[in-house]
Amino acid sequence: MEIKLRVLLLLFLLIASVSAVFLNPYPKIASHSPKSDEDTGEPLFLTPYLEWGKVSLAQNLSFVSHPKLNWIESHSGYFTVDKKYNSNMSFWFFRAKIDPENAPVVLWLQGGPGASSLFGMFAENGPFSVTEDLDYPPRKYSWHINHNIIYIDNPVGTGFSFTDNDSGYSTNETSIGKNLYEALRQFFQLFPELRKNSFYITGESYAGKYIPAAAFAIHERNQEATEDEVINLKGMAIGNGFSDPIHQLNYGDYLYQIGLIDDNARKEFEEVKKSAEKLISSGDYTAAFFLMDSLIDGDTSDSSLFKNLTGFEQYYNYLSILTDDGSAAMAKLIQNAQMRKAIHVGNLTFHGIDPNDSNDVQMNLIDDIMRSVTDWISELLNHYPIAIYNGQLDIIVAYPLTVNYLQQLNFRDREKYLKAERHIWRVDGDIAGYVKEAGNLIEILVRDAGHMVPRDQPKWALDLLLHLTHGKKFSHTKL
């Protein structure tokens, strides 16, 4: 009865509140529009040029010209993915440093929901990072070294992506997959020379839903597409992915085993988990979310049981209690007129994540948070390799929670996976983590990394990706 009352109270708070932040370790940057007297250029909408057949002109217009970035070729602009609501998705594309004509094309999607993929680009795996002085030092283990890589602000309404109508926001993963497919269809129209290249979808956190949604949309449409419309999907990599909530809620045992809570707290966590599972099973996804938020996230209220018991301000690396998200440099970047002009977003609003602001992306996905996408993952595993990796030190999408949902998957090699042997994965002699393979499923634990694996272990993250995209064999020994 006490828990039921708690759920009702939290639902009341939802109605009374206009802001919420879900499962989100990313920089809390307020939405921003530049000053009216700044020269930010004009937003570049590429869809009309593609429809007119002016591909070369569109490529030239999308070229990013910035005095500090003249050492790398990149392109940026907007694809209109829904004309009815004027929904547009912002992208930034970088050609591979090595053999760009043949290098795989990789899409990176940030989580959130509502986090800009610019965070992943600047803080995790892009060609360069950003400092508070707006310098852009090259990244040693950038993913663009061996891959053509595209970053898309997803879903519509995230980052520089936008819609002119409330009905343009996605309320489920099917809609998100549809919009991503349309953006990618236009991307390969813009760069037809890359259509033959292998294509992979990657990302982390809530992208554990976006990636299967996009991949399944591509998989379905490829079956009816003409030869020059097929997207050459070859695989996926999901990092610390929140994909199957009902099987990723066992925080009590996990936090107890790593010493952050005692047995009394573990029992309370277990009680709330069981109640959340019942709510999910009955289809009350919104109530299930708010119940779990009161337990672990504390994003729609002042705190959570986890934060109260541990004193932690964040839940993406249990070796640190404080947040260090690089938000100051990111905030300066999105406000900078020179950069806005270079990437062709003009004076359009950057939709950030700020607990003091209403976030339309998150609020429209409120009923999606606790839904599973494992039906898609199971089907995709029958056709494509999927690397599902976790940082050892993450809390919010901890490795044991991911393994729990993987063991429930109903795919062709399920029994093989359940019996598979685990191996040590080494990179240049160092133990990078542990790997288990069965058919198309590659389960990986990355050692000494938290929620953002490419940021915490950039060398190992690149090595992991190369195994998927270049057929590199894991250097491992049997345990």
Secondary structure topology:
Elements: H1 2-16, H2 47-51, H3 55-62, E1 74-82, E2 87-94, E3 105-109, H4 117-125, E4 148-152, H5 173-190, E5 199-204, H6 207-222, E6 233-239, H7 251-257, H8 263-281, H9 285-297, H10 305-310, H11 327-335, H12 337-342, H13 360-364, H14 374-381, E7 386-391, H15 399-406, H16 414-419, E8 423-427, E9 430-438, E10 441-446, H17 453-456, H18 458-469, E11 475-478
Parallel strand pairs: 3-4, 3-5, 5-6, 6-7, 7-10
Antiparallel strand pairs: 1-2, 2-4, 8-9, 8-11, 9-10
Q: How does this model look, in words?
A:
This protein has 479 residues and is α/β, with parallel strands linked by helices. It is globular and about 65 Å long. It has a single domain (22-244, 326-479), classed as Alpha/Beta hydrolase fold, catalytic domain (Rossmann fold). It has helices at 2-16, 47-51, 55-62, 117-125, 173-190, 207-222, 251-257, 263-281, 285-297, 305-310, 327-335, 337-342, 360-364, 374-381, 399-406, 414-419, 453-456, 458-469, and strands at residues 74-82, 87-94, 105-109, 148-152, 199-204, 233-239, 386-391, 423-427, 430-438, 441-446, 475-478. The termini are far apart. Strands 1-2-4-3-5-6-7-10-9-8-11 form an 11-stranded mixed beta sheet, with helices on both faces. It is built from 18 helices and 11 strands.
